[in-house]
Write a structure and sequence with these properties.
Number of helices of chain A: 21
Oligomer: homodimer
Helix content of chain A: over 70%
Structural class of chain A: mainly alpha
Shape of chain A: globular
Order of helices and strands of chain A: HHHHHHHHHHHHHHHHHHHHH
Number of strands of chain A: 0
Strand content of chain A: under 5%
Radius of gyration of chain A: 23 Å
Largest sheet of chain A: none
């Protein structure tokens, strides 16, 4: 083990021990205090990352079950820490990961990209919009940002940049600088447009539902996000184009598209079946709730169908490490959050905050303040999942205390979870991949990211809030 | 898709449809009848295997959740079909799979083997006992028969056979025929000696507990199995030796051991740590219940510790396909069995069987009959897991109806689940590997398997039953 790993490990082991040695705050059940120490260690572990996320969570789960067992707690049972693994959230994300992989494996993602390039990519600005449309089209069934932006959109737009003669070293500003940063910025918008467009979405919703007592269907989510999301998708490629205009304006898109499509050959049966399964998934998610079916059942059904039809093989699923990692660590953190809730931690936290903080009649001001902090704090987080685990319960609890409208708060936080990641070149899973292409420098990335993230916040807090209040008053969400 | 796959798939799709079209039996809730059709399709799917087990179960789960949702059942909820994934059983097996892999990856399994060969392998019969002891020593933490018998014991004993000049084609009877079939037959005994010695053990226990209302700890299991198990381990290498005496009697074991150990080099830190973790796991499982801790928490803790110490890496776990397969399909079948129980199916089945079958005062005769059938029926099953899913609930239900003592019935069935697999060259996961070495013919394998399996049954029904009754009367199990 490296020295760095050893001290990180010592920090993580020390956290629950120190918390346990401190006196239990008044009004909090002792077991909840012990569990809080373990949860805190898990979050710090997700940030320090001495091991990958699943290892951190497996260790936390085991420690939690053993602590509950030894302590002999009555309100919460050891076996409950495993409950996250039977959570629909975990399975929704895991199953949709298979669909993400299917777009890469079958080549359907590539085909859609080249068709769009051929139709709309006659200028560099047009290519920016091609990126936005491509990302939006496949977003509903690709919760893996790594698979969508990193695995489908990035390689194609990157090869387009190269084909346009833009070199990361000698001529980044010719086209690559613009195209690459745009890939990331638009995916930070599409990611909040569907429950299934980014893995941490479902995680955040599950954690928020417990505390805010809200219910949001797949369709409700998509409707609420549609107006601010589409607006930002229209604005983003244009704003970046104006801020850092690429030197090259015109593109011989027909040649690029023809070459790309020729390489793919005629559309395969698997691609056609995937297109069908994709439509089925969309219809399923849109109509699931009204038929009494869970969104996760639709996702598992669609996954099973893809396997039965041979669109992907079980071996493809076994090799899809991102899916398994997510299954293990999401299930773990949802289970941890569940036992903490059951032990009465968040109830106590709300009481304490209620006595300490006094927002008076300024609940809307509190809402805006929480939203601003939820974005700004993302400079500190290198992972959307870690941010969700650490901050979502806190923001939701503060929101409850402040008296801010629960559904507005939920939607605001659910969406800022995605666009907040636009700020930095490490803010989301796809960022290091896109940044790693070498066309972009940190300074211009952060400037663009700051503009896009805070503009998104402004749009959401004005047009967004108005739109959501309308949907709520109409009983749609 | 091949033609064979298509007709198998059609059969599987037809089963729940035909069941649904048939009138619901009197006294059974309609939803339970629909779910039974799906469960039946899953079991037939596990036997026909048009796809691997996880695919069958994922499809079944999705169909079940959708059927429950569309039907609007009140007693059972769609989300409950996922409950198997938060079952301690599933996680116990999954976590212990990592330990199995660790014995292979670190080389500790090999080292123990060569040490035993050096000490006790001076004759072919001695090598038979080396195999038994080696398999017994690592059995408590290697629930993967493929990893233990197929991945550790088999390669070493196979290379010993080759080193002794026994060739599968020209001289199988010199040593290889005896050594190979013995590898499989002893593992069919060690597999029932610990809850954690074979994956389907925990599955069978979980399914049986629901129906027979029994509780059995890791320690209770090990104690109950110890007497018949050790006796069979003493008998097996000797009986096979007498039935098919190898031509070679003496072995230059010192040379083989020295060469093997030289190749391994000095014991590594990882091997030492694994030995420590293994002892910790044993202590944990022995004392878990008395400390109020679940056996599954011990298993997850030990897995996490192995990862933290770097004995295995998370990448090793990701690559361990057997573990993921088991996680998905065990969790699925446990969830299916759970919703079927909740919907009232097994209660109804017991009532119907109670009216139909009349054992009078012959409950012990019924017990023996069930036990005999539980072994004989294994000629039909190529997978211990499929046998458990299909037959354990039925045998347990018939047992309840017959009035046979619940704990005797449970122990009898839990153990016959392993030794019943001795019968054929496809009876367990390790069988095709060992048989595939080419030293054995089907005829002699089936003769030896028949002798070992039915002798085990005889031992269990005489000495075993006496031993279990003693343990029960002393309040130990």
């Amino acid at each position: 083990m490296s020295k760095e790993k050893v001290w990180k490990l010592l920090v993580l082991v020390a956290i629950p021990i120190i918390v346990a040695l401190l006196p239990t705050p008044a009004g909090l059940p002792p077991i909840a205090w012990l569990l809080f120490g373990l949860y805190l260690a898990a979050i710090v572990g997700l940030v320090l990352k001495p091991y990958s996320e699943p290892v951190i969570l497996l260790a936390t789960i085991a420690a939690t079950a053993i602590v509950i067992g030894l302590y002999g707690a009555k309100d919460v049972k050891a076996a409950e820490v495993l409950k996250g693994y039977s959570s629909g959230t975990t399975w929704l994300v895991f199953a949709a990961f298979t669909l993400s992989a299917a777009f890469v494996i079958t080549g359907l993602g590539k085909r859609i990209a080249y068709i769009l390039i051929g139709k709309l990519g006659g200028t560099t600005l047009g290519l920016g919009y091609v990126t936005a449309i491509l990302d939006l089209v496949i977003a509903p069934a690709t919760p893996s940002n790594t698979a969508r932006a990193g695995g489908i959109v990035f390689p194609i737009i990157n090869s387009v940049a190269v084909a346009l003669g833009s070199d990361p070293e000698t001529s980044p500003r010719k086209a690559g600088h613009y195209l690459m940063v745009n890939v990331y910025m638009v995916t930070k918008t599409t990611s909040y447009m569907f429950l299934t467009a980014m893995a941490p979405n479902a995680l955040a919703l599950a954690m928020m539902s417990d505390i805010l007592h809200i219910q949001l269907s797949w369709t409700g989510w998509a409707l609420a996000a549609a107006l601010p999301g589409l607006l930002m998708l229209v604005l983003t490629p244009f704003i970046i184009y104006k801020m850092y205009p690429p030197e090259l304006k015109k593109v011989d898109n027909k040649k690029i598209a023809a070459a790309g499509l020729a390489e793919l050959g005629p559309m395969t049966l698997r691609e056609k079946m995937l297109a069908g399964v994709f439509v089925l998934a969309l219809l399923g998610w849109i109509f699931a709730k009204s038929l009494g079916i869970d969104e996760s059942s639709v996702a598992i059904g669609v996954m099973a169908l893809s396997l039965i039809l041979g669109i992907v093989t079980w071996d493809d699923v076994l090799k899809n490490k991102g899916g398994w990692n997510t299954l293990i660590w999401y299930g773990g953190i949802i289970g941890m959050s569940g036992v903490l809730t059951k032990a009465g931690f968040f109830k106590w936290l709300a009481e304490v905050l209620g006595e300490t903080l006094n927002f008076g009649d300024h609940s809307m001001m509190a809402f805006f303040a929480i939203m601003f902090i939820s974005v700004a704090i993302r400079y500190l987080f290198a992972s959307g999942g870690a941010y969700v685990a650490a901050m979502v319960p806190v923001f939701a609890t503060v929101g409850v205390v402040s008296g801010a409208p629960a559904m507005l708060l939920a939607l605001g936080l659910l969406f800022s979870n995605a666009y907040g990641g636009a700020l930095t070149h490490y803010g989301g899973a796809a960022a290091p991949i896109v940044f790693g292409a070498g066309y972009n420098d940190i300074r211009s990335w952060w400037i663009i990211g700051g503009v896009i993230a805070f503009l998104s916040l402004l749009v959401h807090m004005t047009i967004g809030v108005g739109w959501w209040e309308m949907l709520i008053s109409m009983g749609i969400i």
